[in-house]
Design goal:
By secondary structure, the protein is an alpha+beta fold. It has four helices and six strands.
Length: 141
């Protein structure tokens, strides 16, 4: 089955893939020249990832560190631009290393063209990465 192409449906599908820990399929949703930005990233964390390969490298070890269980609150807002959605969501799970709960709220601005994510600005709480076991960007696993 092919991935949905509307921005809202594609985004919902991407959340399912994250819960399934299917990182290759999640990365495949991205345009080759996709852009992932983290405007609130703390020092030492990437603020901008350009291209599917860079995004894949960044996300490769995510499930080794954060075991997502659910997105119990997610609202997808359509915008005046039919290719753009604004998403409010909450992700919950556990930190693999410590077993402690993971609970993060996000706002994302996502652009989808031709059935692929071309731009994703992820506004997440940088204070949450001060918890031990959250820094999957430097994984040695």
């Amino acid at each position: 089955m092919s991935a949905p192409t509307s921005p809202a449906d594609l985004y919902r599908h991407s959340l399912r893939l994250l819960l399934d820990k299917d990182m290759p399929a999640w990365v495949a949703l991205w345009a080759e020249d996709g852009l992932l930005e983290f405007p609130f990233a703390p020092d030492g964390w990437p603020k901008r990832l350009e291209g599917r390969e860079a995004i894949a490298a960044y996300m490769r070890h995510y499930p080794d560190h954060i075991d997502l269980h659910d997105f119990p609150e997610s609202r997808i807002h359509r915008t005046a631009d039919p290719e753009v959605v604004v998403v409010e969501m909450r992700g919950v799970g556990r930190l693999v290393e410590s077993g402690r709960p993971f609970d993060m709220t996000y706002i994302a601005v996502v652009t989808v063209r031709d059935g692929h994510i071309t731009s994703y600005r992820d506004y997440w709480n940088p204070l949450a990465v001060l918890e031990p076991g959250t820094d999957f960007t430097r994984s040695t696993r």
